[in-house]
Amino acid sequence: MGSVVFRRRWLPYALLLPQLLILFVFFYWPTVQAVYQSVMLTDAFGNNPQFVGLENFTRLFADAEYLESVKVTAVFSTLVAGLSTVIGLILALFVDRAVRGHAAYRSLLLWPYAVAPVIVGVLWIFLLDPGIGLVAYILTKGLGINWRPNLNPTHGLTVVVIASVWKQISYNFIFFLAGLQAIPRHLIEQAAIDGASVVRRTRDIVLPLLGPTTFFLVVMNVVYAFFDTFGIVHIMTRGGPGTATTILAYKTYRDGFVSQDFGSSGAQSVILMILVILLTLAQFRLVERKVHYAS
Amino acid sequence: MSVVTRRGLSALAAAAIGVMIGAAPAQAQRTQINWWHSMSGQLGEWLEEVARRYNASQDKYELKAIFKGNYQESFNAMTAAYRAKEHPHLLQSNESSVITLMLSGVVEPAHEILEKNNVKVDMADLVPPVALVYTDTKGKLFGMPFNSSTPILYYNADLIQKYGLGGPPKTWQEMEKQIEKMKAGGQPCGLALFGFIPHGQWIDVENYSARNDIPYASGQNGIEGLGIEMMFNKTSVVQHMERLKRWIDNKYAVYGTAAGAAAGGPRAEFGEGRCAFIIDSSALHAQFERDVKPKWSATFLPHEEGRPANNSVIGGAALFALKGHAPAIYAGIGDFFRFVAQKDVQIYNHQRTGYVPVTKSAYDQLVKDGYYNQKPAMSIAIRQLLLNEPTANSRAIRLGNHEGIRVVFTEEVERALIGQKSVQQAMDDAVRRANELLRRFEQQNRGKL
Fold first, then answer.
1. What's the CA gap between B287 and B406, in Å, rounded?
2. pTM (2 d.p.)
3. In terms of Cα–Cα distance, which of A112, A65, A104 is closest to A88?
4. What is the pLDDT of residue A103?
5. Can you tell me the ipTM of this complex?
């Protein structure tokens, strides 16, 4: 494939400009602001700015609360990314094999992705709240569990994980389904002729070929668990009980918009940003290398 | 309409344009004042009505009420707007934001606006716990008191009668005995508790401290300046938290949640008759009249046996005029402040919502009119505020980063409630972390005081 040559040198830039403008206004400018804020100390209005160097960062790493939040985030995002990937994969495997109603299953399984996180939180409150929830009622009356998401850290974490996983399953499902459909039929058919069982075919052919998709999804799911679950946490637990569900993104919000400590909040945003950049780099590196595996 | 000729139509159009042109100057004569507020639901309807009544009362200004989310959300929206120089003219902001606003220099003090517009507000007539929150160090009004409430004890009168308790409890000790009796009789819950952010904190720590005449923070709860420290780990707040934990553990009380709040929460527990008591803002009076199913009434906030039972402190909000607008705007705001200060407006606000009248004269008027004979529960909050000359512990609370302190307190007390640490340890940790926030605030505002 030969490269396209533009006669006028400004044309490609002009064509890129609208996109670049959007990127600048909504991504680069806030990023610059966050970095600026992370080395400053100001009041809520940005008055009285004092340059404090890396003090906001060193304070964070000396703060037991922040390290606690790192731990919570690690547990939370592992659970969310792990569970939603596995469940999404299982559902995709089944739908891929479904003979009839393929399209209907696919549409129904995609729905949750269209629901806003806050609404997801509210929906699950109506199922899991000890006062009104149906699932909570079954847990308490049927299984004899002392269900107290507001006073039991494990229960608290469970409710936000369930809601977050539920929403993300759809995303994983559709990518896995696409991945499955890209696997050449003849590979599976040959294996079947050779007498390989469904389990064997899935384990030795399908899953390895889904490797790049899986890796991509794990990265996307971790990013989802880090950021997009904010609405769910905010509506369901407010980071509680105690700090059992205070993930890093929630702490960043709280320290900035509740405690009006924009310096610390800025520093936390910068750390989160670095984490995501590292994740994305890792993804590019590994996926680029693995993507040729199939062909 | 077939008879309408083309000429007729154009005449009509010309007439219409004429009307528009004629109307335009009349419209423009009214100076528009943007007012960001945080009242939703029934309280939102009330505030809209206040704006409507003000607009109908004169023809120079057009007050436009804009809902911007809860107090915290509207405050954040305002700070962001201020940075972009797009801030509103008038902001309704809550009591915990006063010190931040004072030090920020973004507010045109209320007393200056009142003086410039020859509006007289008699400081001695203001209810002291209201005035003390919104005045500067020289005793002059910084924000215009608007909606003030205080927590009171709402009780299920049917249950008090059913169990022959002889009346609502005056002390926490009495309440415990009453709940014991009701629990023995099969009542599922005694007290409906809010989660601590921010409501439970306001009720069970801040007002608990004021009512029992114990310090919440040093320096008269922060009135004396920024170099102060929290004190609730050394007072009976610790024992009170231990009591609430005991109550939650043995189901004398239910503990609210963020999730529960979305589903009705503690107010529904009380309203449906499952819990016998709830301590809530007096501003919930109107909503309870509509929603609470059993027969109910209200009484004073319980206190500790043997403690003096002081006045409580207020919550709610005041009106703050923001800097950087045209003089005509401030004239309008001054005119609106005059309207708000009127006795009949205050009486209307009080009767419609349960917020207290902010002047003694409005309260006296209501007493004289016999209003409280029909609605005795409505008198509880204002009487509780006027109970005594406020002491150093019950004047006002003025803490930098108060919302952050409330967050820290909640995190720590919940760690005790879920058994991760003892209550004393949790209170010690909360004080240590809150003091760090106070130092941070001091550092942020270095050189301003």
1. 26
2. 0.87
3. A112
4. 84
5. 0.84
A-chain residues near B433 (CB < 8 A) = 65
The helix/strand/coil state of B386 is coil
Q: Do B414 and A241 touch (CB under 8 A)?
A: yes
Alpha carbon distance A89, A85 (integer Å): 6
- B151: helix, strand or coil: strand
Question: pLDDT value at position A142?
Answer: 87
Assigned token pair, B10 = 């154009």
The phi and psi torsions of B133 (rounded to 5 degrees) equal: -70, -35
Judge contact between B281 and B298, C-beta under 8 A: no
Partners of residue B440 in chain A, C-beta under 8 Å: 261
**pLDDT tens readout for residues A206-239:** 999 998 899 889 989 999 999 999 999 998 888 9
Angstrom distance (rounded) from CA B373 to CA B382: 15
> How many CB atoms are located within 10 Å of the residue B327 CB?
8
- The vertex-A171 CA angle with A167 and A77, nearest 5°, equals 60
pLDDT in tens, A275-292: 989 988 887 887 666 554
User: Is the minimum CB–CB distance between A132 and chain B shorter than 8 Å?
Assistant: yes
Max Cα distance, chain A (Å): 76
Phi, psi of A48 (to 5 degrees): 55, 45
Q: What is the mean pLDDT of residues B254-273?
A: 75
* CA angle in degrees (0–180, nearest 5) for B414-B419-B424: 75
CA distance B74 to B84: 15
- Please tell me the distance in Å from B288's CA to the nearest CA on chain A: 20
φ and ψ of B116, to 5 deg: -60, -30
Cα–Cα distance measured from residue A3 to residue B275, given in angstroms and rounded to the nearest whole number: 75
Q: What is the pLDDT of residue B424?
A: 98
Encoded tokens for A135: 């699932």
